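so the lab meeting is tmrw and i was supposed to have these ready like two days ago... anyway. pasting both below. for each one the top line is the aa sequence and the line under it is the structure tokens. i havent really looked at them closely yet so no promises
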Amino acid sequence: MKKKTPKKLRKRDVLIFAVILVLILLIVFGAAKLIEKSNGSKHRNDSDVESQADDEPGELEIPEDEGRPDGAVDEADLTTWKADGSYDNNIKNILLIGVDRPVLEEQDIYRVAGQSDVIMVLSMNMKTKEYFLISINRDMAVPVENYSYIGESYGFVTEQIALAYSYGDGTRQSGRNVLKSVKLLLGDDVPFLGFIAAPFSVVSTLADAVDGVPVLIEDDFSGVDDTFVMGETVVLRGEHAETFCRARKNMKTSYYNENRMTRQIAFCESFIQKAKETMTAKELVNLYDDMMDTTISDMGKQDITKWILNAYDYTFKGFYRIDGEYGEDMHDAPTMVVDEDAVRELVTSLYYK
């Protein structure tokens, strides 16, 4: 007769399984494509910067700085709105950031770290045992702290929130810069435990790990990926999964970011369901271990485990979106104007009592 597994061990296995699934969910949010910047943009990519001086290894060549931007304001001059009522302290929040880089690594100079193309807030109500996600459009124009190439703060400029990550060092400082802008958008009273950032390079790995992720094609991918036929369900593997989550500029349906946000959410939901159905705890442990080094966070592993491992057993309340109306382009890219009344209504209904 087969010996039963002790109750304590079975519980531990369930917790490991829960942690892995939640963290994989966080990593998935990194699936996003870089919005290409024109040659006239003030924001540079890594390829625009010489990494070393000519004859002295290790000496960095700093690009010419353009100085404090027009319209920049100091942090003390910024104002945030206050909601009526009191914040529900049962709700714990973590910021999830997807960066348009295959690898996240510390940069020798600021302003070349890549953009935060996917920005989501994971919120867990420890009392009601529910959790929900808020997806913030990367084109949203909010106050973003600008930095010089050597890390000197120039104050805040209202521009695309996706640029917040690029101004930092590519790791924790970049993540914290995004968090500043998110708090200015949602209101200072909404607290955060920290952030987790991931690159876009994990989507293919995730899709292949579960032998494909089924999704319904609702956008016109003709000329981008002709294997995607509108109205049909396809199983995403490898580079097709990355195309589904990242494609934007050459899409026939829409040039803007809203449709891509919808596809990323659909991929996340389908992947988690497939992982639960097909992967053992051991396989999830191996996948988790393989990808852990690709993420950046200002939270320790124990802190992450402490606050989110229960999310696996919580009831999913749903996705919420923060969108607005597109206004004038900034840096040759579409920029969305915040609907302040809509944001306040959403935040108040979700976080306050």
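ok protien two:
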Amino acid sequence: MRTIETEQASRDWRRLAADASREPVVVTGGAEGAMVVMSEAEFQRLKGKAWDRLTAAMDRMAAEAAASGLTEEKLEELLADES
């Protein structure tokens, strides 16, 4: 992954865009610190992976809850209890 300074990124935006279409580019410096510029396709790929991990974790938790005897009715009862 290539790293460039914000000043260089600003001066050579076309090169940054071209590089980011091939692989993410780290842009360092400036008041905000570092950022990563990447293609829309890479962003969507990473977003999809995160969604897949989230749904897999939710499925695991549901299976563990069911194995422990937690039912929808018991969950509603627990959530309604204000003590």
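from a quick look at the 2nd one: The beta strands are 2-5, 25-28, 35-37. The chain has four helices and three strands. will dig more after coffe
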